[in-house]
Design goal:
Layout (H helix, E strand, L loop, with lengths): L2 H13 L2 H12 L7 H7 L6 H14 L5 H21 L2 E6 L10 E2 H11 L3 E6 L2 E2 L2 H12 L3 E6 L19 H6 L1 E4 L20 E4 L2 E5 L3 E2 H5 L3 E6 L2 H16 L4 E2 L2
Parallel strand pairs: 1-2, 3-5, 4-9, 5-6
Antiparallel strand pairs: 1-10, 3-7, 6-11, 7-8, 8-10
Helix pairs in contact: 1-4, 1-5, 2-5, 6-7
Length: 262
């Protein structure tokens, strides 16, 4: 196999959620070698991830004429199993938004990592952000999670609590039905220290806790942060880190530093 094909497969399995990739392999194994590239791609499981769709096309087109579709399914399956084992050993993944250096495998996008986490959530989602705006897709994914029975909580900054340091309440980015179904928390202004100019501190953290994984980044929940800004983050699959972060946030709620919005 060429280096170009190997890199295409590696990028494909790094991007694809496990359940989606397993379904794609089943699709490949169900088609005889004579079936066209276009027909195979039409039968792939649906995805809203444009990057994943592009990588799937690259892998299938490069495999065409080199091997049967069943053989490709086992190549992808083996590469995915190897990737999963490496992820177990390395529980921190670099995430990025913005330009990628030439000739370098791109890190996974922050927004896509977040969407994948939310789509696979089974128990809880907690998002903390300073700003939120133009996040229709994120709101839809959160609403789907709530319908699956996932507990969704949002810790948000407000214009009034920040005394104008945020000009648009983060809560306004979410539809009313989602707000009604989620737990909303804020940091009361009377709980904040002030600087020499009299300005209160800001709720400036950007964190996502989804089941047993944590995503920490510089990105607010905004269209600019997801699609245009240069942002960086990490996703951690460490149970120890997840437990400590959860205990810290629970302590802030118990002490009244973070208060649920009535």
């Amino acid at each position: 196999m060429s280096d170009e094909f190997t890199v295409a497969v590696e990028n494909f399995v790094r991007m694809a959620p496990d359940a989606w990739l397993a379904a794609a392999c089943v699709t490949l194994r169900s088609h005889p070698a004579a079936v066209s590239v276009e027909h195979v791609l039409r039968q792939f499981p649906a995805t809203n991830n444009a990057d994943l769709s592009f990588l799937a096309v690259e892998v299938v087109r490069q495999a065409s004429g080199r091997m049967s579709w069943e053989a490709l399914s086992w190549v992808v399956h083996t590469a995915a199993a190897t990737h999963r084992r490496s992820q177990i050993d390395r529980d921190v993944e670099l995430l990025w938004s913005g330009p990628t250096p030439a000739n370098q495998i791109p890190a996974r996008r922050i927004d896509q990592a977040l969407y994948d986490l939310i789509a696979s959530a089974k128990r809880e989602i907690l998002l903390i952000t300073f700003a939120a705006a133009k996040i229709e897709r994120l709101a839809r994914e959160l609403a789907k999670a709530i319908r699956r029975g996932v507990d969704v909580r949002l810790v948000l900054e407000f214009e009034q609590s920040s005394e104008g340091q945020l000009s648009y309440d983060a809560l306004k980015a979410f539809p009313p039905d989602l707000i009604d179904a989620a737990g909303i928390y804020h940091w009361p202004v009377e709980k904040r220290e002030r600087n020499q100019a009299g300005r209160p501190g800001k709720l400036h953290a950007k964190v996502a806790i989804v089941d047993d994984r944590v995503l920490i980044s510089s990105a607010n929940l905004t269209d600019d942060a997801f699609n245009r800004n240069l942002e960086i983050g990490v996703m951690l699959s460490s149970n120890r880190f997840r437990r400590h972060l959860g205990e810290h946030l629970s302590g802030l709620i118990r002490s009244g530093e973070l208060v649920e919005l009535s």
